[in-house]
Design brief:
About 10% of the residues lie in helices and about 35% in strands. By secondary structure, the protein is mostly beta strands. A hairpin with an 8-residue loop joins strand 11 (about 155-165) and strand 12. The chain is globular.
Amino acid sequence: MVRARRIWVTAAALLAVAGASPGVAVAGPQPPGGEGVSAAQGGTPLPPGWRLAGPGSAPQLVWRSDRPVPMGDARVEFRSGESLLGVPRPGADGHTFRLPLGGPLAKRLQGLQVWSGGHRLDRPEPEGAVSAARLPAPLPANAVDPGKPGRYRTKTGEYALASVRLPGFAAPVEMRAVVVAPVGAPGKRPLALFLHGRHYTCYKGREDVTGDWPCKAGGKPVPSHRGYLRDQRLLASQGYLTVSVSANGVNGQDFAAEDGGAQARSSLVRLHLARWAGWAEHPGSAPKVVREAPRADLSRVLLIGHSRGGEGVNRAALDSLTPPPAAADGYHGPVRWHIRGTVLIGPTVFGQNPVPDVPSVSILPGCDGDVSDLQGQVYVDGTRAVSNGTALHSAVYVIGANHNFFNSEWTPGQSAAPAEDDFSDDPQHHDPVCAKGAATRLTADRQHRAGSTYIAAAARLFLAGDDRVRPLLDGSGRRAPSADPARVLSHAVGAGRSGGFLPDGGVSVTGARLCAAVDPSPARACLGRSAKGSSPHFAYWATDRETARSAVALRWTRAGTPARVTAGTPVSLTGSTALRLRLFVPPGSRGTQLDVALTDTSGRKAKLGRVTVDGLPGSERTASYWAQELRVPLTAATGAGLDLASVKSLELTPRSASGRAWLMDAWGWRPGTPAVRTDALPRVDVGRTTVDEGDSGVRTYRVPVRVTGRGGSGQVRVYVVDPATGTAENRLVTVRPGAQGVDVPVQVKGNTRYGTDVSYDVLVKAVRGAVVGSYRGGITVHDDDPAPRMTVTPVAGRVTEGRSLKWRVSLSEAVDVDMSAVFQVVKAGAPELSTKDVPAAWLRDMTGEKPDPERPLSKVEFYLWTDIPPGRTVMDINLPTVRDRVREATESVRFRQIDPRTGKPQPGGLVLTGSVLNAS
């Protein structure tokens, strides 16, 4: 690593000089593969591990990690400061990632960073911890424990049907599943369908794993779908019919999908549900394992998705209510099922578009090393005020759980294929919360048992309607003994909660700060980069700032300073028995106390009581700034004569000497789970159109946006990204089915100069009374001009030793992008220029090699390259030589142009040849 770093520093410095000296290019080594340059336009050095590669027509930004990046569910993102550059394509080596640089992106290469699931990959892990890890005290036991096995025996079997074609995927996707059914259960049984997440797809032996699809010769599919057998057996023993489907064909091809494969996974889920609906009507047509099981009750379906599978089942729930665009969908039949709820385990939510009218439980693993920002919290927060609020949306925080161990096929010692703990611990700096052996870290068995218990809780509430398990999911502060010793906390929104003080909803704040969940400004951000850890509530989406995604930040240095949140419209708490707050404090903090009071519109004030809250166990690597549910009875308000139908403000008064706290929201609460009402909400889908640039004139195109549904209107927020700066402007738009509510024109100016494709991106997020399917699209402008001809001319191709060889690379015309060429030294005619014929310092700095023992340059791996900036047509390449006192014959050197994408010789490529004459 020391040698590699010295090489990079020197090469970057020379490139910077080259950028300041017109018409000069330099030589130097490259990372494995021999491709690219380590400077951006203008010669600005790129950070270690980064390079530019590819021809001018298809430039790429390449980052190589010094350690393997496992195939997982969180997507890898390249960012420039706070702005998203794009989602790169992973290389087969597990180290390299490539992002095509369309037009303006090539000018936005400052502050490069690599992120995945809220975790930065291109810097060392932070050292130290926020605080010592302490587990919270066990909660009281719930009256009903859903983790206890039921009375039925179970039977397991598999089915494999013909593979299917899904839009956008070249290879067919498998239709394979494992079924666990109750034996002897009477009548039709509710169906629970599991969908695994994005993981390795193929393996060979105990070491070799890949993301290929289909598997290459000798490889076997990773049986990820068999990783939930423990959960399935528990549910089947309780009378539920269960099926877990395989999605390797999606995992192996979703790298190119703009939505990360959510639509494809939805199609796959609904294709399986359609088969089950058909088998329920015609049992004789079913596979053997299904024929021998009780008949499925498709009016009661629970979908359970892990990681990207979570986002997939969320989309399947949406697509079952309102169909997606036919061209993007792999299922086109009738919906003959009713999805009563979803369970989302460590889920991704790239679109941040949860389904508001389908109940959900999001399981958030406190030591998730894959989707480490716990972005699945958005499935709760993102539903607030979008629809009627009758559906329960619960978040279940499992302290000490990682991402993988909810699936036994992703768990070392239990899996058929190689597996690993996704929370990688630095042996020099053990994480106090998540390291193996830490008091707060769960073993694989305990974690899976806790997961099974809370999946069963959701099934019992959503499918069986047993309200006795609700306290495990809605923040009532109860535990399921079957999950012991895991510490599991919950909070929820919806389910009839009324009268919300919602920071997103037009409140004013005094004595505290209304802060932004995502904003590059430290003065606006709720939790800046200096925070020791992160918050699931503030997970990054796709823009560097978001509008109307807020919280209330409290900070005090003495007790008794109140913070007041005043609603723009009076809040009604009629019928509520308690005020429920979702509030968090810094991880590891203890004993934060706040008095809670309400004031009505007449000015009458009532103190409700005092709440005490401790921070969760946390470190710099965990997302432990997570809101706990706190409740205070409304009896004091009633006794004080407060008008609960017209509450104006909420007041929080700290009683601790100093501290910090963040309020996410406050609602009126009463026990019970109301019937879910599904509103007919308009659905918005953003498409993408590719157009040719043209040779002249200005043409206006419109981003394809489709609004469908059965009536009504709603509001969405539309973000339009500037391709030159990466910043986004946004506006609130009212949408109605069939109407052109979202109108985004893009002007395209034609020319005849060669350039790159440019994408004008549009993103949409639901605000009120609407849902969003495909959240991202736009106009891609294809540059249709031919590439200029590149030639090379020797300027000094035959020199006396001590002088520099020089070649001039020329373009037939100036273009709008960098045009690069990379040349690799190859064997020349004897005798060859040797390691002693070039300056020793230059050789050492450029290759890390010493002149001795003397050997031909073709035995040393190094490259010459040139990068002709936009608007220029000529660059020179120099190779220095030294004068010695040895009489020798004329020596030769030869370089051959290589394809920077493959590192192999480019067919018909340019050749550099030179001769050095003896000066003695």
